[in-house]
Design goal:
43% helix; Rossmann fold; alpha/beta; five-stranded parallel sheet
Length: 279
């Protein structure tokens, strides 16, 4: 897809996030919005997947390690054709297959249940090792939050991945610099993130703007070309990206917009979509 096409899909993903969280009256919009571009790039460009055959054996795998940003993953899956976009309005409702964290048993396209922070990367490492042991060539991607990497399990998994040269593994860190209690420096600074992954024998790619498709395209191409070691893409993003009053506002980590706020967000995204259609 062209960057313009990807930008249009990212707006649809953002609208799905806002629609779902508003309908649920709960959820995590901030970190879902900051990752809208990477969700879009993975599912519309990067990964070998087939919505008509979600379990095909040779598919690439994705693990949402920061599982609370499920609204972003669900919006990407829906717009990619795994299930109806209308399902997004059932987010967190009783009986819905779209719960607050991803569930592999119920949601087409979800490769791993996640939500307990720090654990998803371990699942992804296991998948990557399995591919190596089985001589299969699928790749495994996992998305972590920058607050999440304060968890010790992240580094145990990273040590294992680097030690076992899992070059079919791509770890992505959404470095929006905010977590539920404030900035990541205020809570428990993981900086310098790039140096830490390099110390665990990762090939590290620093992306200055993780909301820019040119930079994401270059980063994932470099990751694919890297042999003999796993890759970590550390991307700077804007929490709440695309909705003006949510951008860089820690309070939007985990709450839903009210009706008035929802209307503002929808109007802003509508204008963004119209601007892209004029290009």
């Amino acid at each position: 897809m062209t960057n313009l096409e990807l930008q249009k899909e990212a707006v649809k993903v953002r609208k799905g996030i806002i629609d779902g969280v508003h309908a649920a009256k709960a959820g995590h919009p901030g970190g879902s919005l900051s990752a809208a571009e990477v969700f879009t790039y993975l599912y519309f460009e990067e990964m070998n997947i087939d919505p008509k055959d979600p379990k095909k054996p040779d598919r690439d795998r994705f693990v949402l390690s920061k599982g609370h940003t499920a609204p972003g993953l669900y919006a990407a899956l829906a717009n990619r054709g795994y299930f109806p976009v209308e399902d997004l309005l059932t987010l967190r409702h009783i009986g819905s297959h779209l719960q607050g964290h991803p569930c592999i048993q119920h949601t087409p396209g979800v490769d791993a249940s996640s939500g307990s922070l720090g654990q998803g990367i371990s699942v992804a490492v296991g998948m990557a090792l399995s591919a190596k042991l089985s001589n299969e060539d699928y790749r495994v991607y996992t998305l972590l939050g920058d607050g999440e990497i304060q968890e010790g399990q992240v580094w145990e998994a990273s040590m294992f991945a680097g030690s076992h040269h899992l070059d079919n593994l791509c770890v992505i860190v959404d470095n929006n610099n905010l977590q539920i209690d404030g900035t990541i420096e205020e809570v428990n600074s993981p900086y310098p993130i790039t140096d830490k992954f390099a110390a665990f024998n990762f090939h590290v790619i620093a992306v200055e703007d993780g909301n820019d498709f040119d930079q994401l395209r270059a980063a994932f191409a470099e990751a694919r070309e890297t042999k003999g070691m796993p890759t970590a893409i550390v991307m700077k993003t804007v929490k709440g990206k695309g909705v003006s009053y949510m951008e860089n506002a820690v309070g939007w980590h985990g709450k839903a917009p009210n009706d008035e706020e929802y209307a503002i967000a929808v109007e802003e995204l509508k204008k963004a979509e119209e601007a892209l259609c004029q290009k």
